[in-house]
Amino acid sequence: MAEAIPLVLIHGLWDTPRVFRALLRDLDHRREPLLLPHLPHGLGSTPLLDLAQRLDEAIRTAYGADQPIDLLGFSMGGVIARSWIQLLGGASRTRRFISVASPHQGTLTALPWPRLWLAGIADMKPGSLLLQRLDADLDPLRRIDCCSFYSPTDLTVFPGWQGVLPVGRRQLLPVLRHDRLLAAPQALKPLLDELLRP
Fold first, then answer.
1. CATH topology of domain 7-195
2. What is the enclosing helix (H) or strand (E) of 146?
3. Is the dihedral of CA 172, 127, 41, 49 positive or negative?
4. What is the pLDDT of residues 151-179, one digit of tens each?
5. DSSP state at residue 63
6. What phi and psi values does residue 87 have, to the nearest 5 degrees?
7. Secondary structure string (H, E, C) spanning 74-139
8. pLDDT, tens digit, for every residue of 14-70?
9. What is d(CA 159, CA 171) in angstroms, rounded to the nearest whole number?
10. Contact 158, 109 (CB under 8 A)
11. 73, 82 in Cβ contact below 8 A?
12. Most CB atoms within 10 A, among 11, 44, 103, 159?
């Protein structure tokens, strides 16, 4: 029997791993091993690459340096996961990357916030240095199975239709609000289908 691929779930801004409770309930232990690292972000003051380094430490502590994994990143967590994949060598061990409403092209809601005080939020501005660096070399993403889920009416990652990776499959979720993308049944069903796909 083949060894199960661990699943790592990465939360977003002003969230904790508790944001995944509905998803975990519906998964009903069908994706294990499972890692839900808590990545404190200082209310948005911690740069996303620093959080990606903390993610790397959590993954290495749980699974060593070589174990292949699947990742699901929600909101800011998707950009943290992408930073780990593209800038910290995570692509070499990532089988599948699922992004849910993540500002890979930036979000207009981040524009008012100064980098001096809120570096993590500023990393999500359209055209930020971090996003430019990620977009400069997409080969690490092209080597793995990527899928983006988004809502066109999302007002947190705005405009919502830009909350997708630059590569891979894309699927619209018929949910009105950002905070329902991991809770509404019409979002959970396609997410579960993707997570349980062979």
1. Rossmann fold (3.40.50)
2. strand 145-150
3. positive
4. 999 999 999 999 999 999 999 999 999 99
5. H
6. -110, -15
7. ECHHHHHHHHHHHHCCHHHHEEEEEEECCCCCCCHHHCCCCCCCCHHHHCCCCCCHHHHHHHHCCH
8. 999 999 999 999 999 999 999 999 999 999 999 999 999 999 999 999 999 999 999
9. 15
10. yes
11. yes
12. 103
Report how far apart, in Å, the C-alpha atoms of 194 and of each of 40, 41, 101, 121 are: 27, 28, 15, 28
Whose tokens are 């340096």? That residue is 65
| Residue with tokens 């570096």, as numbered in its chain | 119
Dihedral over alpha carbons 111, 112, 115, 119 (to 10 degrees) = -70
Question: What is the signed CA dihedral for 142, 160, 59, 37, rounded to 10 degrees?
Answer: -170
Tokens of 147: 């899928």
Q: Which residue has the tokens 């009903």?
A: 28
Instruction: Please check whether residue 100 is in contact with residue 73, taking contact to mean a CB–CB distance below 8 angstroms.
Output: yes
